[in-house]
Specification:
Layout: E1 4-6, H1 12-19, H2 23-29, E2 31-35, H3 37-45, E3 49-55, E4 66-69, H4 71-77, E5 86-91, E6 101-105, H5 111-123, E7 127-131, H6 140-146, E8 155-159, H7 161-169, E9 173-183, E10 193-197, H8 206-209, E11 214-217, H9 229-240
Parallel strand pairs: 1-4, 3-4, 6-7, 6-10, 7-8, 9-10, 9-11
Antiparallel strand pairs: 2-5, 3-5
Helix pairs in contact: 5-6, 5-9
Length: 244
């Protein structure tokens, strides 16, 4: 196993790591960075960890080649205010087969919300589909928000109406959130099914609502008009598993 020390900002490999802060380069290289020991270890568990990147003086006990950076270079590469001193260079996973309960996320723009929903999806036994025009799955806030679930949940990206239609033809029921929908407490979820959550600002698109077998709304009190997308998704996934 070959380790390496980098102390120049002009180093070609270091520049490659810096470029991975942008989506287009992540997609080009099929690589991304995670930060912190927990996420780095999760990547190793599923075989996606290619290299460990750390700063001088940080002990490493992972089975991957290690790149040591000078403290100043590591600080420039880190996106955290108080970094742990360890990152993982990871390969993007191949798509896994989706299950019988699917969370379809439509044009989600907030990376923290996306990460939270993926984490909740794992907790409640859902696969995840992410539509086109959504935030990148490998955005550092998405990865952090998922707390490692991104490595374990079956996820399909760049989805659209045709993907929903294909599932409907396979006898998946489509349930979509809508302010004019049926009150949640009266819903009966039939497996297999897809639960569609819309964007934070616009909700579920009409073309997806038109495919839905049923639309759902969460009953609320007071003057609250809507819930955060991640909160709504988590509530609905939890409620669906209460069904006999």
């Amino acid at each position: 196993m070959k380790n390496k020390f980098i102390d120049s900002k002009n180093n070609r490999e270091y520049k490659k790591y810096q470029s991975l802060s942008k989506r287009k380069y992540r997609e080009k290289e099929q690589l991304f960075l995670v930060e912190g020991l927990k996420l780095t270890m999760e990547a190793e568990k599923v075989g996606l960890l290619e290299k460990v990147i750390t700063k001088e003086g940080v002990p490493i006990h992972l089975n991957a080649p290690t790149i040591y950076l000078s403290n100043s270079l590591f600080a420039k590469l880190s996106t955290q205010g108080n970094p742990e001193g360890i990152m993982g260079l990871c390969a993007m996973a191949k798509e896994k087969p989706l299950g019988k309960k699917i969370l379809y996320l439509e044009e989600i723009r907030d990376p923290g919300n996306l990460g939270t929903m993926i984490r909740s999806a794992e907790a409640f036994g859902f696969s995840v589909m992410i539509s086109k025009n959504s935030v990148d799955l490998y955005h550092e806030k998405t990865l952090r928000g998922s707390m490692g679930s991104v490595f374990r949940v079956p996820i399909k990206t760049q989805c659209d109406r045709e993907d929903l239609l294909a599932l409907k033809k396979k006898f998946y029921k489509i349930y979509a959130t809508d302010l004019q929908g049926e009150i949640l407490r009266s819903m009966k979820f039939e497996t297999p099914f897809v639960l569609v959550i819309g964007s934070e600002s616009h909700g579920v698109k009409k073309e997806s609502l038109d495919l839905a077998n049923s639309t759902i709304k969460i009953p609320m009190e007071g003057k609250v008009e809507s819930l955060n997308a991640a909160t709504s998704a988590s509530l609905l996934m939890f409620y669906s598993q209460l069904e006999p």
